[in-house]
Amino acid sequence: MQEVLVVGASRGIGLGLADVHIAHGWKVHATTRDGSPPRRDVIAHRLDVRDVGELEDLVVSLPVLDRIIHNAGVLRAARQEMMEVNAVAPIRTVAALVDAGRIRRGGTISIMTSQLGARRGRTGSLGDYGDSKAALNDEFRKQAPVWAETGAISVVIHPGWVSTDMGGSHAPVSVEQSSVGILELMDGLTPSDNGSFLTWDGRVHPW
To answer: Residue 51 burial by CB count (10 A; 0-12/13-18/19+): exposed, middle or buried?
Structure first.
C-alpha cells in the first residue's frame, strides 16, 4: 500500500486530498494543528507548521513515504505570520522530510501555491498573500534541484479557485474536482516535471 502525508488536512483542499487518496487505496498520514484525525481512516499527526519542535517529532514518527503534499496555509493574517506559514514553513517542512529520508526514490512532492504568487500570468492581487506565495515559489525553484538529487519529483501546484472557507462559496471549482485533479496530476509526474509550477487540471503555469 502506498503512503502519503498531507500537511494541513483538517478541512478544505487538504481534507479533500486525504479523502481522494483513501478512495484510491492509499494509506494516509495527515497533520492537523491539534493532532485530531480529520477522518477515521487516516493516521493523524500533530503539527503547527510554525513549531520546529513539532516538526522534529513528526519527522521521526513517519515511515518512508511515496508522496508528500504540503497544503497548510493562511489567507488572512498579519504579514509576518503569513510569510512564515505560507512561504517559510512549506520549504522547511519538506526539506526536513527529504533530509531525513522520508520520501522514497521516485516519490512525489507537491506544495500548494497560488497563481496570485506568479510574477507573470497572475489575475487579481491579494497583497501580502500574493507576496507570500511569490516568496514560496522563488524558494521552491532553488530547492527543487536539491530535492531531485534524492530521486524525488517535486512541483508546486495552483489548486484553482476552490469553494472552501478560504476560497468562498462562489468559487467555480469544488474541493472534489480540485483534489481529484491534483491526485491524477501527481500520479502522472515524471522526472522531467521536477521544479514545475502546475495547475490542478494539468496545465503549466508561468512563473
So the answer is: middle
The single-letter DSSP state of residue 168 is -
Torsion angle of the four alpha carbons 22, 23, 25, 26, in this order, in degrees rounded to the nearest 10: -30
Judge contact between 47 and 71, C-beta under 8 A: no
Beta strands in 88-165 (DSSP E): 103-112, 153-158
- Measured N-to-C along each axis, helices 128-148 and 89-99 cross at an angle, to the nearest 10 degrees, of 20
Within the chain, strands assigned E span 3-7, 27-32, 43-46, 65-70, 103-112, 153-158, 196-199
Tell if the pTM clears 0.70, that is, is over it: yes
DSSP assignment letter at 153: E
Which residues of the chain, if any, have pLDDT below 50? none
Q: Tell me, what DSSP letter sits at residue 75?
A: S
Amino acid type, 31:
T
